[in-house]
Design goal:
Layout: H1 3-12, H2 14-32, E1 37-39, E2 45-53, E3 57-60, H3 64-72, H4 75-78, E4 86-89, E5 101-109, E6 123-128, E7 134-135, E8 144-146, E9 149-154, E10 163-170, E11 176-183, E12 201-204, E13 208-217, E14 223-231, E15 240-246, E16 263-270, E17 277-283, H5 287-297, H6 310-313, E18 320-323
Antiparallel strand pairs: 1-2, 2-5, 3-4, 5-9, 6-7, 6-10, 8-9, 10-11, 12-13, 13-14, 15-16, 16-17, 17-18
Keywords: Membrane, Transmembrane, Transmembrane helix
């Protein structure tokens, strides 16, 4: 068969071949855009991932057709359309000044067979790092549910891994509803290494002495500092303190990884509306938390990176640094 005859046959059947190519292209696009979704074991709740990232984003639930129908149908008919939602988020930052990780899910329940909306699924995100340790940070204060949608924001996740392994867990029964991986939007491969100091440790300025006696850990691995505040000058006004942990990769909050060489505890103490006094402590992650992680993994996790000198770590020789912000 000559080349000319092949060309003539293809040209003769160009319309069916073109239609087949279009169908295959549409199928490929649909498969590529297939959403990440999961359903609870009882089949009552379906969750679909709509957005994951650190930057600003906006989301509109209506497509072109729903927008047209919502504007032109009478109210008695239009009220049966799906709930409409418009969400805009600026890139929020955590207490360490780094971007938060944001998720938006659609959260639809079968109200005919399942419990009332919001009761069948109490979600939390977990992140598994390269050591096998599971981050279980609390969601930030802006996380909420709204008309079948779920927004979650987090201050801590494995920033030193190029890929973030995520899973959505039902807090009611511990069921993993959804698993997915994503490229790390705030990858920190070369973070500094901090040197921890001994406990108890005391930091002071002209008005106040703050002592860190230790760190307590709850069942979810959330850390709470044990602090003692001692005023050095007589005053009738009470001191209010705010404390949070940070790691060298830019995470903040109570749910940090115990495989780091040190955490930094920041303490702000304030009287009324006066300028707060700032204090810093560099401490080793609690040994109890590391042992707990190793027992869950069934093996010894990787050894934390050896601390650098005090100059390289940017802290004092005893692992405590104070910053007096008030005169």
């Amino acid at each position: 068969m000559s080349v000319a005859s092949i060309v003539r046959r293809v040209w003769k059947h160009r319309i069916p071949i073109g239609a087949i190519c279009i169908v295959l292209a549409c199928a490929a696009v649909c498969y590529w855009r297939m959403p990440v979704s999961g359903t609870t074991a009882d089949g009552t709740t379906t969750v679909v991932l709509l957005h994951a990232g650190t930057g600003a984003f906006s989301y509109e639930s209506d497509n072109v057709l729903l927008t047209f129908l919502r504007r032109n149908l009478p109210w008695l008919v239009g009220r049966y359309l799906p709930d409409w939602i418009s969400l805009k988020r600026c890139p929020p930052r955590n207490l360490a000044g780094r971007h938060k990780l944001q998720f938006l899910f659609s959260d639809h329940e079968d109200l005919g067979t399942g419990p009332a909306r919001g009761r069948g699924l109490r979600p939390r995100m977990e992140f598994i790092d390269s050591t096998g340790y599971v981050f279980r940070p609390p969601a930030d204060s802006r996380s909420h549910r709204m008309h079948g949608y779920l927004y979650l924001g987090y201050d801590a996740w494995p920033r030193h891994d190029p890929v973030v392994h995520c899973r959505l867990v039902n807090n009611i029964n511990g069921e993993v509803v959804l698993k997915f991986n994503m490229k790390n939007p705030d990858y920190q491969p070369d973070s500094p290494v901090w040197s921890p100091g001994p406990l108890p440790a005391t930091a002071r300025d002209d008005e106040l002495a703050v002592t860190l006696r230790g760190i307590t850990i709850d069942d979810l691995g959330q850390a709470t500092p044990e602090l003692t505040i001692e005023p050095l000058l007589p005053s009738d006004r009470p001191w209010k303190t705010t404390a949070w942990f940070e790691d060298a990769t830019g995470n903040s909050g109570p749910g940090l990884c115990p495989m780091e060489s040190a955490w930094r505890l920041r303490v702000d103490a304030q009287q009324g509306t006066a300028t707060p006094h700032g204090f810093e402590f560099f401490v080793a992650p609690p040994l109890e938390l590391r042992k707990r992680a190793e027992s869950v993994l069934g093996r010894s996790t990787k050894t934390p990176r050896p601390p650098e000198s005090s100059q390289g770590a940017g802290n004092s020789k005893v692992g405590v640094r104070t910053d007096q912000s008030a005169s």
